[in-house]
Design brief:
The chain crosses the membrane at residues 6-26, 38-60, 84-104, 125-145, 151-169, 181-202, 214-235, 255-277. By secondary structure, the protein is mainly α. Helices cover 75% and strands 0% of the residues.
């Protein structure tokens, strides 16, 4: 147990260091005063709208997890699931050196209801896997608009291959979730599109009106690479900075938009502290 805690601490420390180093290099190229100046010009209406779409994506993510829990006959009601989800967000964002959000869910559900920690972990893993698959599929879909027509068939083939392989993997290793695979995948696509709309609105708030396809691909790509940093901070900004060298978009604006997305994430992650302070009260659905 002590070795596990030490390993987790080292991984989280490494992620924080990655974020710090990447932000250092980003702000060497783009002074933070430039970012602050851009923030002072934002259209607040679009930011509020962006926050609404981000919140919608998180609520829908809660519903997706509910399907995975239900597959194991873990019938947590939606309100309890939502509170636990936001508390997990809080742990992930504001307590990087402590217990992770997913680990906390496993601990609290196992302690409260005596549910199998292994089954809860598998539900959370497949929930994440579904989201990852959706991101990869959307990256390929949006990338199709950036390539010439002859590449479209290859992209379609890769999408079919990716979905097929993930379905086969689920059926072979996690057969419990086979029946809900396509349902949860469809939900994952909607969740990611809601976050894309959120980022699109943030860009609009900063006065951007074109190049949305490459912005979208870069944003989705940063969601995958965010695994190597703390809450994706630093990775998104560095990826946008590097992409600006090859595509025609303003590096300062894209980095500013990326940081605004992080601010919105942090804002909703703070909701979790409400449930932390007033003691989490989890209940099952009434039959």
């Amino acid at each position: 147990m002590e070795k596990t805690k030490l390993k987790k601490l080292l991984i989280n420390t490494a992620k924080i260091l990655v974020s710090i180093v990447l932000l250092y290099f980003v702000f060497k190229k783009i002074p933070f005063k430039d970012v602050a100046q851009l923030w002072s010009t934002v259209n607040v209406f679009y930011i509020i709208l962006a926050a609404f779409f981000f919140l919608a994506s998180q609520v829908l993510s809660t519903k997706r997890l509910e399907f995975y829990l239900d597959s194991n006959n873990f019938n947590l009601n939606f309100k309890s699931n939502l509170e636990l989800y936001f508390l997990g967000m809080f742990y992930n964002f504001f307590i990087p050196g402590g217990i992770g959000g997913d680990a906390y869910k496993v601990y609290i559900l196992n302690k409260k209801f005596g549910w199998s920690a292994k089954k809860i972990t598998s539900a959370l893993f497949n929930d994440r896997l579904s989201g990852l698959l959706a991101i990869c599929v959307l990256i390929l879909c949006f990338s199709a608009f950036l390539f010439e027509v002859q590449w479209v068939l290859l992209i379609i083939g890769l999408i079919i291959l990716g979905i097929g392989f993930t379905y086969f993997l689920t059926k072979k290793i996690f057969s419990t979730y086979t029946e809900i695979f396509f349902k949860t995948f469809a939900i994952s696509i909607i969740i990611q599109l809601l976050q894309v709309i959120c980022f699109f609105l943030i860009m609009k708030s900063l006065g951007v009106h074109d190049n949305f396809t490459i912005y979208t691909v870069t944003f989705l790509g940063s969601s995958i690479l965010s695994l190597i940093s703390f809450a994706g901070i630093g990775v998104r900004e560095m990826l946008f900075l590097q992409a600006s060298k090859y595509f025609e978009f303003n590096a300062s604006i894209s980095v500013s938009a990326s940081l605004l997305f992080t601010v919105i994430t942090a804002f909703f992650s703070l909701f979790g502290i409400i449930f932390q302070l007033r003691k989490l009260n989890l209940n099952l659905r009434e039959k």
